[in-house]
Amino acid sequence: MVRPRGGPAALAFVDLGPGQREGDGQAFTFEDADTLLLYTDGIIEARSPDGAFYPLAERVAPSTSSGPEALLHHIRADLLAHVGGQLNDDATAVAIQRSPKLDPGHQLKKIVDISSPDHAD
User: Fold this and answer.
1) Is position 116 within any domain?
2) Burial of 64: CB neighbours in 10 Å, binned 0-12, 13-18, 19+
């Protein structure tokens, strides 16, 4: 979880890997402008030519204010630079950013049931 609250981003890591049991996780509040970053071990286990693991927490923190797409582009470019251009494992990341709450005037006015044949609006 990346929280850009007026200063350096706060990072919280939660292991969702195999072997996790119900109740092992941590609860958190997904607040406005927070970004949830999900990634595979191929990212954090990627090694530089001298054998250093990719330091995701250090590299993500400065790049959180530009939105989820820019964050993913930054991680990809930085990860490839870290490993010298080619990964030896699969690497996947998904960034989800919570949009700010809408003003009452911007709330959804009509719910359309798309499963109904009568939804031609």
Assistant:
1) no
2) buried
